[in-house]
Amino acid sequence: MSNKLLGAAAMAAILLAVAPASAAKMGGCSGENLSKTESMIEVMADGEGKMAAQKEIAQAQDALLSGKMGVCAMHLSKAMHAGSMK
After folding, report:
1. Which residues of the chain have a pLDDT value below 50?
2. Cβ distance 60 to 75 under 8 Å?
3. What pLDDT is stored for residue 12 in this prediction?
4. pTM of the shown model
5. Per-residue H/E/C for 24-86
6. Terminal Cα-to-Cα distance of the chain (whole angstroms)
7. Handedness of CA 57, 38, 36, 32 (dihedral sign)
8. 30 torsion bin: left (phi>0), alpha (psi -120 to 50), beta (else)
9. What is d(CA 41, CA 83) in angstroms, rounded to the nearest whole number?
10. Whole-number pLDDT of residue 51
11. Looking at residue 69, what is its pLDDT?
């Protein structure tokens, strides 16, 4: 049981370290990237993917306003991936 918890904690740490780095490749969190992603989401068909993407965009905007660029980039990335789900 403890091995599973330790493995999950290690995986979470890796994901948190990699998410901001991968977001930096896409240009990071900026007003321009938020606008592009919002435009992409607006034309999506209504459904679970669109709702999830809209929630991630809202969280990305909150993080951007708070100056948490890594968190913002992570939510922006999740919004893009949620927008591509069917």
Report:
1. 5-16, 18-26
2. yes
3. 46
4. 0.63
5. HHCCCCCHHHHHHHHHHHHCCCCCHHHHHHHHHHHHHHHHHHCCCHHHHHHHHHHHHHHHHCC
6. 35
7. negative
8. beta
9. 6
10. 92
11. 92
Residue matched to tokens 């591509």: 84
Are 73 and 21 contacting, i.e. CB atoms less than 8 angstroms apart?
no
Q: How far apart are CA 73 and CA 55, in angstroms?
A: 14
**The pLDDT value given to residue 85:** 63
Between helix 48-65 and helix 69-84 the angle, nearest 10°, is 170
CA dist., res. 43 & res. 56, Å (int): 16
Contact 48, 10 (CB under 8 A): no
Quick one: which H or E segment has residue 6? helix 2-25
- Paired tokens of 53: 């993407």
Q: Is 27 left (phi over 0), alpha (psi -120 to 50) or beta?
A: left
